[in-house]
Amino acid sequence: MATLFDKLKIGNIELTNRMIMAPMTRSRATDEGIQSDSAAEYYAQRTSAGLIITEAVNISPMAKGYVRTPGIFNEEQIVAWRKVADAVHARGGTIFMQFFHTGRIALPDFLPDNAQPVAPSAVKAKGQNYTDAGMKDFVTPREITKEEIKQTVKDFGAAAKNAISAGFDGVELHSASGYIVHQFLSSNANLRTDEYGGSIENRTRFLFEVLDAMTSEVGAERVGVKFSPRMPFNDIEERDAEEVYPFILEKLNDKNLAYVHVADHAGEGWHARLRPIYKGVYFAGASFTKESGEQLLAQGDADAIVYGVKFLANPDLPERFKRGANLNEPDKATFYSPGEKGYTDYPTLGHAAAK
Ligand SMILES: Cc1cc2nc3c(=O)[nH]c(=O)nc-3n(C[C@H](O)[C@H](O)[C@H](O)COP(=O)(O)O)c2cc1C
């Protein structure tokens, strides 16, 4: 029976425990998508996680949907990320980089020459996005052309290559939370009538093309993928999620990825349903406590547990779980604000502030 403190092999890497740090956007990069030195410190403080998954990283200039989010598509960005990977490795940690393209969630404010965002179909998401000039309504995107789909697939592959060259141990595709891959999977953002829309096979085509591009660049053993079935965030509807995700996980059995990561945001019992389908390493995430994580591992419904806000607020979360210590409370006001406050200053056990 596995516990949170048992080792776990993913691909060719042995993780020191089964507590994974969730990908979390922190919006502390420059406007040019260059990661700050304090990011190296923030991630290095959390190396007692079995695996760190970085915040979502833009794979191209057209991918950007949020202020101060980092990129991995030019040399300056790669150099900055290398400091993060080196700092984590110097403290014995393991780190994967998560990739996204935000599709229709991007605002022209974030795109080159204030471009209109691209998405599977010209369907505007209901809701608003944050900019430094205040909240703004999402805009109607332009339907992405087949040529642009090909290029975007290549961009994901190139990003994987760049992350490995920056020293990362692996990469994770963000196919969750309503960004472009999830938009293709959905029943409301994807209204295409070509081979990328309609049937489940067609709506999952982009996902598999991207995964193939990433695995052919860096090897399947260094690639993971995250899903959030039926998560309505960013105005996503998935009327046939009950069929889509079993289809995907069944097909992923042949791909030999490092892992599959599923966030069950509404607690709909997805782990018990999907785990038995997938033969490889399965990470379960969203809203876990120490106890509920231990229980899921004991039931065999996951190989590792992903913790988000608890890792954000507790750099030494594994030590705190081991000792049964109290946890720091997360400060929501500083989740996405620039600067060190709420970033590198959460205290570890017995220390006034993590240095
Ligand atoms: C501040 C913040 C930023 C997040 N950014 C991302 C992200 O960049 N990529 C992603 O896949 N999920 C992101 N998430 C979702 C988390 O990865 C995770 O699924 C979620 O927090 C639920 O897990 P938890 O209850 O353990 O925090 C974010 C969550 C938070 C709190």
What this model shows, in words?
The protein has eleven helices and 14 strands. The longest helix is centred in the middle third of the chain and has 20 residues, at 146-165. It has an eight-stranded parallel β-barrel, surrounded by four helices. It is α/β, with parallel strands linked by helices. It has one domain (8-334): Alpha-Beta Barrel (TIM Barrel), CATH 3.20.20.70. Bound molecules: flavin mononucleotide (FMN). Flavin mononucleotide binds at residues 22-25, 55-56, 98, 174, 176-177, 226, 263, 285-288, 307-310, 335.
- As residue ranges, the low-confidence spans are none
Oligomer: single chain
Classified in CATH, the superfamily is Aldolase class I
| Small-molecule components bound | flavin mononucleotide
Class from secondary-structure proportions: alpha/beta
Total domain count: 1
Question: CATH class, please?
Answer: Alpha Beta
Strand content: 15-25%
Largest sheet: 8 strands, parallel, barrel
Strand order of the largest sheet: 3-4-5-10-11-12-13-14
Mean of the pLDDT scores?
96
* Known CATH architecture: Alpha-Beta Barrel
Per DSSP, the total helix count is 11
Layout: helices, strands, pairs:
Blueprint: E1 8-10, E2 13-15, E3 19-21, H1 37-44, E4 51-58, H2 75-90, E5 95-100, E6 118-119, E7 128-131, E8 134-137, E9 142-143, H3 146-165, E10 170-175, H4 180-185, H5 200-203, H6 205-218, E11 223-227, H7 241-252, E12 259-263, H8 270-274, E13 282-285, H9 290-299, E14 304-307, H10 309-313, H11 317-323
Parallel strand pairs: 3-4, 3-14, 4-5, 5-10, 6-9, 10-11, 11-12, 12-13, 13-14
Antiparallel strand pairs: 1-2, 7-8
The protein binds flavin mononucleotide.
Flavin mononucleotide (FMN) binds next to β4 and α10.
